[in-house]
Amino acid sequence: MRRSSTKRCGCPFSLKGQKNAHINEWTLEVKCGVHNHEMVHLEAHSYAGKLNENEENIVEEMFVAGVKPRKILSTLKKRDPSNTTVMRTIYNKRAKMQRAELDGGTQIQFLYKCITNGDYVSFNKVNAETNQLESLFFAHPVSIQLCKMFSCVFLLDCTYKTNRYKLPLLCIVGVTSTNRSFYAAFVFMSNEVETSYAWALECFRTILDQKKLPCVLVTDREIALMNAIAVVFPGAKNILCKFHISRNILAHCKKEFKNGKEWEKFNGKWQQLVDSPRESDFYQTFLEMKTEYEIAYPQVYSYVVTTWITPYKEYFVAAWVDMHLHLGNSTTNRVEGSHSQLKKFLEVSIGNLATIWQTFDQMINLQHTEIKRSFGQSTIQTNRVFSSSLYSDLLGYISITALEYIKKEELRARTGHGSFEGCTHKIKYTLGLPCAHDLLSYIRNNNTFPLWMIHDHWKQLTLREIKEEQDIKEENEADSKIDVEIEGILRRYNNTSDLQKQEIKRKLRELMDPSSTQTLAPSLPTRTKGRPKGSYKKFTSDFKSTKRDPSLFEHVLKSEQLSLKMRPMRTTKKEAISEKRFLKVVQKEMPAYIRDYISDVVDVLGDGHCGYRVISNGMEMGDDWLQVRNDLSRELQQKDILYDAIFGTTRRIELQNSLDCTTTPAPLDKWMTMPDMGLIIASCYNIAVVHFSMFQSFTCLPLHSPPPAVRRTLFMGFIHGNHFVQLKIKDDCPLPPTFSIWRRYHEEIAEQW
After folding, report:
1. What's the CA gap between 138 and 185, in Å, rounded?
2. According to the per-residue pLDDT averaged within each range, which of 131-145, 511-525, 563-577 is highest?
3. Which of 592, 603, 589, 660 has its CA nearest to residue 626?
4. How many percent of the chain have pLDDT more than 90?
5. What are the backbone dihedrals phi and psi of residue 342, each rounded to the nearest 5 degrees, phi first?
6. What is this structure's pTM?
7. Could you say which DSSP state residue 381 is in?
8. Transmembrane residues, as ranges (predicted)?
9. Average pLDDT, whole number, for the chain?
10. Distance between CA 611 and CA 718 in Å, rounded?
11. What DSSP character marks residue 193?
């Protein structure tokens, strides 16, 4: 029942207004000037807070731009301090705008109208019995151009909690020559069975250049999707995400090991197996793993072999995967990052398909703007590191990203002393770029690197219409004629009953004007009474949230974290003395002014991942250093414009590459570096990072987010010149100065820090 109230309180106060028609003026008479209540604020009167014409225009423009209601109200208050508008007025205005957009139609009719007006390509599948929409495919016209230009690699993954109907959303993401992601297409599906995936992929195939179908499709181990790919794109290589495989190994195998060192040893061997550059290396490492673990840990060995190695080794092991042009995409991190960006725009998971489409349209248009900017940078900007005459034939013709890769190979060629017999041609096969030994003769003779050595993917720097060859154009023109179909429809129409004629006319009207469709929205999921099965609470406070549910490996790490918290403190005299000595060692490695404020030190394994282990421990993520690396990599990728401005493109790519490491121990070039990584850590986790060492001490703050309600600070210490530890610091400790770069590049919203 709706809660209603009245403003009638029996107040005797009254005024009488009367207009004099002769002189066109009003007279006001106070009939009773007495109130039976105290003076109330004008905000309590809806009429006083009514929007004027100018304010209505401002609110409409800001809603169209996707600005949140509370920020709209703040803007009105700043423009006019005497404004008495309240949040309810803003919400009512939004509801009025939405009703005006629908214009008496249904949300599905409005959705089809938007898709048609935006020149989107769309396909739908409707339930014949209920006339409800089951599946919807749509792709932006510019995204279709990008798909035809950059058709080598696509990443596919479903995400959830995006709409009120609980429909899974399949996102298809591509990669440009400037290493930027783009949304190729979206598909709302009623379920995740093979037929649904096959329908979605068939729709996707229709928007591609049929002579340039994908070489590689990267997915998770979703069997239905993999089967559909084998049918619709039989010539494409299906690669499975290495990151998700490693997380599955962790979830199912870590619990079987007696201690952390045994697990780290096994995990290191597994990563060595996955990264095997040749088939011979793979089988040699596999034999070593079999000898060591088949008898000692039979359940672990059985799971790894039967679930992953035997059926899928060609899908994720480098020896097979790196023979294909995957452009460095051997995980689904790129599409996972796109999910995160998408949900930031959505904010809630209870929108209908029409409002969701509008949000997607805004997001895609912004993405295309950044892609065009990146094309322009590669065309007109020249980095000084490429000033050598070796690059004169490449500058302006290939992307900066490709130049960065070639520069690394040039440096490798100059320091390789001419010995490249063991080269597996990984760069050539996976990126379509020359290896170091291919460049060696050009470097020795000081000849320019030729353009023909570069794959066409890296040469696309202009968003343009794809020109069709003459024979394809003629074939398409023949296919586009509908004379035969029109004649068939007329024959059927003339030979059917009046009822069937009405149905044919209805369908023709829908073809002419999609917004006249009679298709119904998908049915809403039934909300049952009581506590949902498997949950501990009857109601959840985040039913509107777009945040995904935890994966199995996250539950495993959470349980480990809880067990560590419940574990009793070490109390033996020997261990106490050892901890006290280590604390003194660390204190000596710190600046003098901080030593007395260090109350405790948390040490981590020194295997090249120590900095990331400190972050994982400080963020209460257990010992999940790999997740930290992926989180920071996603931060760099999503905010690449910001970090390009701070570090430069070359350094930003170096930092991104340094995070790409799954082996233990980590090589030197994969170690954490400060202070650059400090800014990324602070911005990724929205915390303050305070770093102490004898060489440099500084405080890093988030660059693009305001402080949370409960602020967190992570204290890190750098000792012996090669190892990070976590410091426990007393409350009244003096902090080092804020890193100077933060002052120059932080966004206004982060000023509150």
Report:
1. 6
2. 131-145
3. 660
4. 27
5. -60, -45
6. 0.72
7. -
8. none
9. 83
10. 9
11. S
